[in-house]
Design a protein that fits this description.
Elements lengths: L1 H11 L8 E13 L17 E11 L2 H7 L3 E11 L8 E14 L4 E14 L18 E14 L4 E13 L10 E14 L19 E12 L8 E14 L4 E12 H10 L6 E13 L2 E12 L9 E10 L4 E10 L2 E13 L1
Antiparallel strand pairs: 1-2, 1-8, 2-3, 3-4, 4-5, 5-6, 6-7, 7-8, 9-10, 9-16, 10-11, 11-12, 12-13, 13-14, 14-15, 15-16
Length: 358
């Protein structure tokens, strides 16, 4: 599941502002799906079929600069989506405002295949309450994060209208800021129609625009996050600060492997140590290894982390998964975000600043 989340973020942060724009798209679509019970205790509240609608507007990016961001054409824009979870007393409804990017894999002729990533904010009108709604262990905050990955088949009827069929994987979570936070994963099937203004069919770009290096590169980085000491209250967040370093080795135009190490100090763990009178340190360190995609200015890393040191009375796991997205904003400087997870359970997200050394 968290590979999907990581991919989601990967596609959504790309190509925000580029000057050359050929076409504008205004769309509407309907959704129908089901909820995945990713842990046994979710089965009683996951036997419903969410449904909803979505309205959106986007632009087709065709400049060389935009194309080199992902070595592909793509659309980007904003959408509003409403979902009814068909369980008004426990789950209620969500209202989602998102930014999306939709790269095209196939774009010649009337039939086009695309992959959309969406990221945004959601408002949930029905959340966990220990007394009035104890069954809703999916949502505990009214405002949460919304992520989605969509595989879409687009058919252009003419230069003014297109219809689309999409398989969507949707995820809602508060990022571990308050518990319970099981998060909702709900695939949907959607059917929609687009009204297109000033459409121009995209043409192949010169091969020389797509270049990559096979040499090793190295990185240094810093990261930070906020975590709740008791994992229950929103108002008791404490900082987490860390540093990382590692190496990246390209294997092909988009694939590579990476090795690294990271160290962090977590003040929320320190608070737990004090409250529970534990003989533990709040300092953690680990070595990491994994695979990464490198596309244009983007890196998406999928890593396994192996603890060297950790607060053992707080953290039982000796291994974790980390999913990171980096975006190069200058020649060597990169910004990013990262999600750490233990199996199916997301722990927390952080923000990152990375310096890449060739």
């Amino acid at each position: 599941m968290y590979r999907i989340i990581g991919l989601l973020v990967f596609f959504c942060l790309s190509q925000v502002l580029f000057a050359q724009v050929n076409s504008k798209f205004y769309g509407v679509k309907s959704h129908y799906g089901f909820i995945i019970a990713h842990t046994p205790d979710l089965k009683p509240i996951s036997q419903t079929n969410p449904y909803g609608f979505q309205i959106e507007m986007s632009k087709l990016r065709t400049s060389d600069k935009a194309w080199k961001t992902c070595f592909c054409y793509g659309r980007s824009g904003f959408s509003f989506a409403y979902f009814n979870y068909a369980n008004p007393e426990v789950l209620g409804n969500s209202y989602n405002l998102n930014y999306f990017v939709e790269p095209y894999f196939i774009y010649r002729g009337p039939l086009k295949l695309s992959l959309r990533g969406s990221i945004g904010a959601t408002y949930l009108d029905t959340i966990f309450d220990e007394e009035s709604n104890p069954d809703n262990v999916l949502f505990s905050t009214h405002f949460s994060f919304y992520l989605a990955l969509s595989l879409t088949l687009n058919y252009h009827i003419n230069d003014k209208y297109a219809i689309n069929l999409s398989g969507n994987y949707n995820h809602i979570s508060n990022g571990g800021q308050k518990q319970p936070n099981k998060g909702m994963n709900f695939p949907t099937l959607s059917i929609g129609v687009d009204r297109i203004i000033d459409y121009t069919s995209p043409q192949p770009k010169p091969a020389e625009l797509k270049q990559f290096s096979r040499s090793w590169s190295y990185y240094l980085g810093a990261f930070a996050s906020l975590r709740s000491a008791d994992r229950e209250a929103e108002s008791t967040n404490h900082p987490l600060f860390g540093i990382s370093a590692g190496a990246l080795k390209p294997l092909s135009g988009i694939n590579g492997f990476n090795l690294g190490t990271e160290f962090w100090y977590d003040w929320s763990d320190r608070k737990q140590v004090q409250q529970r009178q534990l003989d533990d340190s709040s300092f953690s360190s680990a070595v990491t290894a994994g695979h990464h995609f490198s596309v244009g200015n983007f890196y998406f890393l999928q890593q396994f982390g192996f603890y060297i040191t950790r607060p053992r009375n707080i953290q039982d796991n000796w291994m974790y998964q980390r999913y990171s997205l980096w975006y190069r904003i200058a020649n060597r400087w990169t910004i990013g975000a990262s999600l750490i997870a233990y199996g199916r359970t997301a722990d927390h997200m952080d923000g990152r600043l990375i310096y890449i050394i060739k």
